[in-house]
Amino acid sequence: MFDIKEELKKVPHKPGVYIMHDKDDEIIYVGKAVDLRRRVGQYFDSSQKLAKVAAMVSHVEYFEYIIVANECEALVLESNLIKKNSPKYNIVLRDDKQYPYIKITNEKFPRVLKTRRLLKDKAKYFGPFPNAYAVNDIIDLIHEAYKIRTCNLNFDKGQKLKRPCLNYYINRCDGMCVYDVDEEEYMRELSEVENFLNGKHDQLTQKLTNKMMEASKNLNFELAAKMRDSIENIKIILEKQNITNTKGLDMDMISMAREAETVCVQVFFMRNGKIIERQHFIIDDKYDESNEHIVGEFFKQFYIDISYIPKQILTDIEIEDKDLIEQMLEQKKGSKVEIRIPKRGNKTDLLEMVKVNAKEGLDKYISRHLKRERNRENAILDLQDITGVKIDRIECYDISNTSGVDSVGSMIVFKKGEKSPKDYRKFKIKTVEGADDYASHREVLTRRFNRLINPEKKDNSFDEKPSIILMDGGKGQVNIANEVLRQFNLNIPVLGLVKDDKHRTRGIIYENNEIKLKVNTPLYRLLFSIQEETHRFAINYHRKLHEKNFKKSELDEIKLIGEKRKKALMKHFKTLDRIKKATVEELSEVEGMNEKAAENIVNYFK
């Protein structure tokens, strides 16, 4: 039992990060402190608290802390933990889209790739880029001008080929997969690529211009025209805005707009005096946080992953922890970084433009959000008309297996039309052998509702009764669900989700009648998303279980039984118990088996 008062006495007077957990072991808040004991103790002081703090503390079951060397380290760790865990009571930076980045890999003869994942792999990341097509165009331009390899060979491990690929023969790669290539020259070209991705595109433009002139000189007008178009593309991609700062500075400009419980933070990126890109983020603000706190949290979380930090960042809002954030940015950049609030002149005009765009981004988000909300409400109303019950919690069930092996069940939960991942549950099928969908559904539903009626332990998801149940299947699956519910004296409407010949949602089964769904209606989109999410969750769990069981098996200890024969055995017999009981003759019937291997299995399990 975690005694908060006693544990507070053990907290040291040192800088660090504190982490609050609720009764479900979820991280609900992360904070930093110069003095951990003093700061954490303030939360549990009996004096009056802000609404947000009071709400958070009422859910704290226990806390933990991490000691660091100084407050700057605490800020970095706090930012990383918030980004990783998205705690309920923190300001969490949520991108309205998943923007792509351009990645220069950390390997021998690095590659230039498009990615949507930022990994701690010592690679260099550039972006984010709001337009995925622009990223493809940029990478194409790079390969037009520089001989950057595209293959995935591991040169750090000495991988080689007997002959080079097509790129070598069309002069787009020097063929380091076969020949000795000057690595220093390759890295010099790559440094020009980095300059280009940082907004300094003069070298690339000059390279393409030289190629265009050479092609024209050689009467290769088709190639010359292609180079000309590439040069124009650079202007389109990287000079979308013709706003210029006479000093040719690199800087970011940040402003925000807010309405009700939603905040939009807008960032404009200026490189070499030109605005080359912009990006906006949406933040939920349920507790009416101050502008200073919101923008301060934005700085911490946004710049923790950004590869390039300019010398100057402009904003029109005073931010919390400004000096500390500047210190963090300077450590990351390796040189001085200044956060400024301009009072007059061209920079205030630029920030006003950023603010206007933040307001536009917020209006568009709210408009889309309200439309989605109306669609969800309409879909729920349609379901309520069909079933005659008020709908809050929807549960959907699916079974997944491979030829009857490693069967699993999934329970997906949607609340008020939105998915609730924390309520999802997985079931490993225990009593059914082979691919018996009905029996597997019976087991899953029996276990689920037994936990509702006779709870062994507290489980918020199992303890809550669903408004309706959706079955991924037709009348057979629906009948199984109704039988199980009758056993537990539960009256819950059950609907089946049926698909057409192309495996697309066609309609619903309710009370033995099929109701066809019109495509692109709110109800269709809701049910389709629930069915897809249920299938995805079941498949993912099945794959993990199947890979785990397939990799670790008693069969691995038997001579002449490799991965192919092991897979064939499991496909043929479904379970290890059946393999143990099989005769040499039965085992020999399996594809790829010979008599010696079959004898080894029989002798091993004697």
Structural features, described:
The chain has 606 residues and is of the alpha+beta class. It folds into five domains: 4-90, GIY-YIG endonuclease; 101-238, no CATH class; 251-363, Nucleotidyltransferase, domain 5; 393-542, 2-Layer Sandwich (Nucleotidyltransferase, domain 5); 553-604, 5' to 3' exonuclease, C-terminal subdomain (DNA polymerase, domain 1), CATH 1.10.150. The chain is built from 19 helices and 20 strands. The strands form four sheets. Strands 13, 14, 15, 16, 17, 18, 19 and 20 form an eight-stranded mixed β-sheet that branches. Strands 4-10-9-8-11-12 form a six-stranded mixed β-sheet, sandwiched between helices. Strands 2-1-3 form a three-stranded antiparallel β-sheet. A hairpin with a 5-residue loop joins strand 1 and strand 2. Helix 5 crosses helix 9 (221-238), helix 8 runs antiparallel to helix 9 and helix 12 packs across helix 15.
Write a concise keyword list for the protein shown above.
single chain; 606 residues; alpha+beta; GIY-YIG endonuclease; Nucleotidyltransferase, domain 5; eight-stranded mixed β-sheet; six-stranded mixed β-sheet; 19 helices
Mean pLDDT: 86
Q: What's the shape?
A: globular
CATH topology of the largest domain: Nucleotidyltransferase, domain 5
Tell me the number of structural domains.
Answer: 5
Quaternary structure type = single chain
Helix content: 40-55%
Give the class-level CATH name of the largest domain.
Alpha Beta
Q: What is the C-alpha radius of gyration, as a whole number of Å?
A: 30 Å
CATH architecture of the largest domain: 2-Layer Sandwich
The tally of helices reads: 19
Largest sheet: 8 strands, mixed
Number of strands: 20
Classify the secondary structure makeup into a structural class.
Answer: alpha+beta
Low-confidence blocks of residues: 239-246
Between the first and last Cα atoms, what is the distance in angstroms?
49 Å
